Amino acid sequence: MKALILAGGLGTRLRPLTFSMPKPVVPLLGKPLVRHLIDPLPDEVDTVILAVSYMKEYIERYFQENDVGRNIIIVNEDVPLGTGGAMKNVAHNLDDTFFAFNGDVICSLDMESMLHHHRSHGGIGTMALWPVEDPSAFGVVATDDSGRIVDFQEKPERGEAISNNINAGAYIFEPELLDHIPDGVVSLEREVFPHILHRGLHGYNFEGYWVDAGTRESFLRAQRTLLDLKGNMISCATRHAGVEFIGPNMIEATHLSPCRIGPHVYLERGAEVHQGAQIEDSMVLTGASIGRGAIVKGSLVGPGARVAEGETVLDRILA
Ligand code: GTP
Fold this sequence. Notes:
Layout: E1 2-6, H1 17-20, E2 27-28, E3 31-32, H2 35-38, E4 47-52, H3 56-65, E5 71-76, H4 82-89, E6 98-102, E7 105-107, H5 111-121, E8 125-131, E9 139-143, E10 149-154, E11 165-173, H6 188-192, E12 201-205, E13 210-212, H7 216-230, E14 233-234, E15 244-245, E16 250-251, E17 260-261, E18 265-267, E19 272-273, E20 278-280, E21 282-284, E22 289-290, E23 295-297, E24 300-301, E25 306-307, E26 312-314, E27 317-318
Parallel strand pairs: 1-4, 1-6, 4-5, 8-12, 14-16, 15-17, 16-18, 17-20, 18-21, 19-22, 20-23, 21-24, 22-25, 23-26, 24-27
Antiparallel strand pairs: 2-3, 6-11, 7-13, 8-11, 9-10
């Protein structure tokens, strides 16, 4: 069985970090975002197709250097074709039931159970659904009593949503779906889903957590969620005399001056933190340096970025 991961978007909402690396390989707790989708795939998925475009060399290099235990096929789009166009572009690889994901979804979806649900309900596809309080920033889905999807609404005005269930960006489709995608730049959400409801598209609700990690706020929410679940992960090589750790953190950096870290901080190997700095709810990547007495909160600090001595960085992306 195959899984398709849409990984070709520009990631504009994570700029400037995504000027130096594409979103699919931004490390969430030490693991590129797309690996959070690949690792929990059911065993019967032997091949993962990555539909890429923006900074594709970076993604190719990651998979050349890292064995993820599945065959990886990387398919390029010279210009981004949109979520539907990207799927159509890999159609020649999809001749059986397949999984498909937006590459920035972080969730507790039990993919095996979803596959079982799909096989027992039939139809052209199954879409994972997630309930939210305010669906106005999402694709909203209405289902009937049997769980069949009967209506779609893309980013409705506040108060006008047809339900609280949103499209979670994780799907199982039959290859017939590909016949319903026109050529060119196509959005699955706007131009395909509304036209295939008569072929039987089913919703699949699940419990646990779901985050679309495509913005600074949501990326850090995903990081907090996983840290709260996994607890502290501090590399045994870390020398941290005089460092005050608060709450769950993931620390790969090895040399830390006395400083205050946490809760919810990821320090990648090669990140530097100088004396008296305070870091909370943030990610600091390799080669970045947090100066003496600096304060960093709610921020993504990209590779090589410098926070000067005494500087305060709140809710920002630095790269
Ligand atoms: P923003 O620019 O911040 O909106 O991010 P994005 O470009 O990643 O767009 P969005 O988050 O809406 O995309 C959802 C998923 O679809 C992401 O995993 C993208 O990589 C992927 N995606 C979006 N557009 C394309 C495309 O044209 N081609 C391919 N292959 N993937 C796409």
